[in-house]
Every structure is written in structure tokens, then in C-alpha cells.
Amino acid sequence: FDYTFDERASNDLVYRYTAAPLIDTIFNGGNATVFAYGQTGSGKTFTMGGDVSSAKTDYSHGIYAQTARDIFHRLSLPQHRSSVEIFVTFYEIYCGKVFDLLNNKKRLRVLEDQKGLVQVCDRKEQQVKSVQDVLNIIQQNFLILLSIEFYYALNSFLIFIANISGR
């Protein structure tokens, strides 16, 4: 692990040390992954998605939203303006099965390609053009997931992917 954080760490601090440095990697043509791992109840959903469980839900301080803000800020700079498109996928892994959260929880196939890489097939990609588009996707799916049975939610893993490509 590059870093570990305890319950006193703010989402802003976690973002600054983990995902924020990866923005340069992305804009230099590389790939980046932020992986939240921890015990049930340790704050992974809060860290990645924001405050999704209180009466005053706030998705704006999660890693997803902060990353989206930095990416769209970078895209507003003259050297990147109008040169890229962003498509996101959002899926869930539950009991060894994969479900597309952007397509009514359609079950997806997971296959190994000729290079030995794992591919999630037929997942829906949705273009996003603003931070608000990303927040809307997160909000819609967290509301659905939080409304389901508690035990189910504890054993579910979420994968949010943003693909940035040149036109």
C-alpha cells in the first residue's frame, strides 16, 4: 500500500494523497486505479462516494466527485479543450456475478481475452460532459444500492471506470 488512513482522515486528505496525483498520469496517456479496501464499516463507500447514508446526502466530497472535478478542470484548459471525450461505466460485483448499473442491473459476461486480460463484455458506456453528469450517475446508483437489503450491500463491490479518449 502507498498510504493507509484512519477514521480521522478527511476525504480531501485521502484524495490529495491518492487520486489527485493520478490526474497527471491520465493526461499523459497512462492508466490509473484507485482501490478502496477495508473492513466492513470502515468507510470505503463514504470515501469513494461521499456522504451517501445521512439524511443530507452529499456526493460532492467523495473520491469519484473530486476526481471528476479535477479532470473537467483540466479539460477546460486551452491545450485540452475539445480534444477528448469521457465515457463512464459503472458495474457491481455480487456473489461472483457482474451487473451493469447503467443498464438496469443487466448481468454482464466476464471473459478472458487472447492476451489473458479479463474483459467485462457488453457493459454500457455513458458519455459524461460535466462533473454534474458524474454526480448524477453516482447519486442514482447509490440510492438504488442503499435501498436494498443491508446484507446484500455489505457483500457487493462497485467498479466505476472513466475512459478518457481523444477525438
TrEMBL record:
Q: Enumerate the transmembrane spans.
A: 142-164
Pfam annotation, one family: Kinesin
Any one GO CC term of the record: microtubule
From which domain of life does this come?
Eukaryota
The answer, when asked if Chaperone is one of the entry's keywords, is no
Q: Which InterPro entries match?
A: Kinesin-like_fam (IPR027640), Kinesin_motor_dom (IPR001752), Kinesin_motor_dom_sf (IPR036961), P-loop_NTPase (IPR027417)
Instruction: Describe the location of the Kinesin motor domain by residue ranges.
Output: 1-167
Residues engaged in binding ATP:
38-45
GO biological process terms, semicolon-separated: microtubule depolymerization; microtubule-based movement
Q: Does the keyword Zinc apply?
A: no
Tell me the compartments it is located in: Cytoplasm, Cytoskeleton
Keywords (alphabetical) are:
ATP-binding, Cytoplasm, Cytoskeleton, Membrane, Microtubule, Motor protein, Nucleotide-binding, Transmembrane, Transmembrane helix
GO molecular function terms listed in the Swiss-Prot or TrEMBL record:
ATP binding; microtubule binding; microtubule motor activity
Similarity comment text for this entry: Belongs to the TRAFAC class myosin-kinesin ATPase superfamily. Kinesin family.
Please state what the protein is called. Answer: Kinesin motor domain-containing protein
Q: Which organism is it from?
A: Rotaria socialis
